[in-house]
Amino acid sequence: MREGFHGQLTAIRGALGDMTDTAATAMERATVALLGADLTVAEGVSGLATQLDAARRVVEDQTYEVLALQQPVASDLRTMVMAIKVGGDIHRMGTLAQHVAKVAVRRHPGFAVPDELFPLIRKMGDVAVRMAQSAGAVLHSTDAADAGRLSIDDDAMDGLRRALFRTLLDNWSYGVESAIDMALLGRYYERFADHAVAIADGVVYLVTGEMPREPDEKLS
Amino acid sequence: MRDEFRRALATAEDTLAELADLAAAAVAQATVALLDADKDAAESSLEQNQALRTRLTELENNAYNLLALQAPVASDLRVLVTVVRLGADVERMGSLAAHIAETAKRGSTVPEPLTPIFRQMGEVAQQMAIDAGAALRSRDTADAARLEADDDTVDRLRLELFGQIAGEWPYGAETAADVALVGRYYERFADHAVAIADAVVYLVTGAVAE
Fold this sequence. Notes:
- The complex is a heterodimer.
- By secondary structure, chain A is mainly alpha-helical.
- Chain A is built from six helices and no strands.
- In chain A, helix 4 (118-141) packs parallel to helix 6 (176-208).
- Chain A is elongated, with a radius of gyration of 19 Å.
- The radius of gyration of chain B is 18 Å and the shape is elongated.
- By secondary structure, chain B is mostly helical.
- The interface between A and B is medium-sized, with 30 and 31 residues.
- Chain A: Keywords: Cytoplasm, Phosphate transport, Transport.
- Chain A: Residues 18-103, 121-201 form the PhoU domain.
- Chain A: Pfam families: PhoU (PF01895).
- Chain A: This is Phosphate-specific transport system accessory protein PhoU.
């Protein structure tokens, strides 16, 4: 009975890992849509977000089903609650990728991102995607080493967001709408990154019993 | 044994409602800080957020201890999982209020023509957190319906805000960015309040609100 239970837990973790990979793809495409002013790619992001929404419900139902059939002990319960929380994080990541894609749609056929900021936004996209991939790897492997990489990328993301804000302070010449777009885009990428960190920290916590750090975004 | 579990669950739900009240106070203080450039109000909002986080950790630990001692049945488990999830919503509300307070603390001020919008956003957000707490206490699904209406108000205010910025805007890009982000924080605060009320509907009726 217990072995079946652990098999089911592994399956749930695997499903969550796959979902995180999908979230990474969604943000990758969203950034492509944004930088290329590409409506078709942007629409694809909505499809992936919808897919994540459905997958989340399936995993949640599965989790409750496992709970109903077994007599879980306290540590199992923590795992289950964590699985449901992680499902919520991944769902948000999909929504945030969709928000990025929507900025592209709103400014189409123009380009939302001023030329000067192309490299910065591209980097934010790259770091965000890599972080989601790392979070997926942690879910697949439960290896804390995979989580270590995330905190370096998270610092990089903070630095990029600060750099983005500095450009807004410094003789911004692209108009106020664009300033708003950039502020919100920075926020979307940052929150996406926060969720990737939360996922990895949650898994590490379950494996090691220790929370790697404050499980919330920094306030600065 | 089961009665004891139910009682402990009820206590956890009460605690959650108190945390929603704390989030309401935190967003109210943050709004004062923002509109009156009041640093004391900003500090008080940040302290409320800290208090909320400390109590939330206690709540989660109590929930897990409860599980270690009892053997809950499936329906109780769902309630318990929901309590932990709602804890995460309330925690985000506290963080978002803190973001608004931090923005005020940094010295960013709202341009005069926009103060009525932010005042109203603050009032609605505060009321929504209070209503979310009330929904948790009463398990009354009517509270949830009211929250939906308030959420529409926040969305409308945010659109109005964007309209204003897109019009005549002599305040510079940095202020535009700050104002847009603060609008976003209020909007997300409201979303989490709605999520709490929806979960109450689910606890009562077993149906997932869309």
